Amino acid sequence: MFGLIGHLTSLEHAQKVARDLGYPEYADQDLDFWCSAPPQIVDTIKVTSITGQQIEGKYIESCFLPEMLANRRIKAAIRKILNSMALAQKHDIQITALGGFSSIIFEEFNLHESKQVRNIELEFDRFTTGNTHTAYIICRQVEQVSAQLGMDLDKATVAVCGATGDIGSAVCRWLNEKTNVAEILLIARNQERLHNLQAELGRGKIMELTEALPQADIIVWVASMPKGVEIFPEQLKQPCLLIDGGYPKNLGTKLQYPGIHVVNGGIVEHSLDIEWKIMEIVNMDVPSRQLFACFAEGMLLEFENLHTNFSWGRNQITVPKMEQIGEISLKHGFRPLLTPQHS
Predict the structure, then answer these.
(1) Does the predicted TM-score (pTM) go above 0.90?
(2) Rounded CA separation 254/58 (Å)
(3) pLDDT by residue (tens digit) across 17-31?
(4) How does 104-115 read in b/e, with b if 16+ C-beta sit within 10 Å?
(5) What value does the mean pLDDT take over residues 319-328?
(6) Pairing status of strand 127-128 against strand 95-98
(7) Radius of gyration for the alpha carbons in the chain, expressed in angstroms and rounded
(8) What are phi and psi of 167, to 5 degrees?
(9) Measuring CA to CA, which residue among 177, 169, 174 is closest to residue 194?
(10) Number of helices and strands (H, E) in the chain?
């Protein structure tokens, strides 16, 4: 059995979902309540591969909300993720994908040092961040959507915002090794990591965001939006392809402008309907078929009986690992979402 650990996008979203799911005791509560709310298994999932194989899984709502980080409730955020992992292990779930902020919190706050959660010693090989599959899907979106739009990667400048993160660095490696992209612009806050990545790639220009945006034919956004920073359509080339790999995905609604094509990055479509409710809650266009690639990685590992932390640790994703998960993804009927939101 596989597991998925997720969370909602805001307090307001959480209150609405609690009402819809039949948890009235959660529906009108404030952030303090959500800080103390325990994780819950709220959905049972059935997935069928195009090979005919069937698997089952559970969705664990962590009750983490992004406001916890914004309001310095760091201990509450950490507790949410560790308790969710412990809940998955308690139910003997063999492989669980950490979705959204779950993996970020795990990495940023060194939760690998917190193996003991009450009477449960966490076995980290039961968990995967899903970042390898997410990075692979984003790269395929760059390749396939740019071709649809008539863009020539050989002549294109690609800006990667969040280049030193786990997903961003993997995207840079793929673009460097698997494509003939003309130029890679590297954007991130940590200058030391940027220079290390540039040295590893043997190429790439380190730039500030405002300097890079007007030069980019393709923008891969895999970073959190810094406070006070906004992107305006007039800053961008036309045409421009923007792969929005952030969470929540909101660049499509902010950048409705002719010639700017925004794709929800890191989203896959399955060939067959999935039996679950959770993707309706996060407002997928086709909730029975579409899902986050990080969640799909948990499913793929279950299909292949690879109960291991396939994606783990910062900047550990290699191109061969991306190719491996990509082959498994295609084998079981997953493909990148390729429809731009606005043209």
Answers:
(1) yes
(2) 34
(3) 888 878 888 888 999
(4) bbbbebebeeee
(5) 98
(6) parallel
(7) 19
(8) -75, -45
(9) 169
(10) 14, 16
